[in-house]
Amino acid sequence: MDLGQNHQPHKSEAVGLPEVLELRAWARAYLYSIGELTLHQAVDVLQRDAQRDGLVAEIGQDAVQQILADAFGPYRFAFFNWGIFLSCFSGFGNGLEGAS
């Protein structure tokens, strides 16, 4: 496909706002997962842009949130701190003390 200066997208090539939000959300979710963005940095700009561009009015807030949830869902435990979690159980031992 020629993407020169005079390229005009065909109707079938046009991408709608929901698709743009979805692609941006997946990209920002990945950046969140590798620590380049905090969750707030990753999500807040997407929400703000969805409101600014009229997407919230077009498809509704619930649909916008679902797009974001679908993108960020796989990374929801990316920064789970196992050290803190496991330290909560440090006083319990492994249950094998005194076993013979």
Can you lay out the helices and strands and say which pair or pack?
Elements: H1 17-33, H2 39-52, H3 55-59, H4 61-72, H5 82-87
Helix pairs in contact: 1-2, 1-4
Key attributes of the depicted protein:
single chain; 100 residues; 5 helices; 54% helix; mainly alpha
Write structural notes for this entry.
The protein has helices at 17-33, 39-52, 55-59, 61-72, 82-87. α1 (17-33) runs antiparallel to α2 (39-52) and α1 (17-33) runs parallel beside α4 (61-72). The protein is 54% helix and 0% strand. The chain has one domain. The model has no long low-confidence stretch (mean pLDDT 79). The chain is built from 5 helices and no strands. With 100 residues, the chain is mainly alpha-helical. The radius of gyration is 22 Å and the shape is globular.
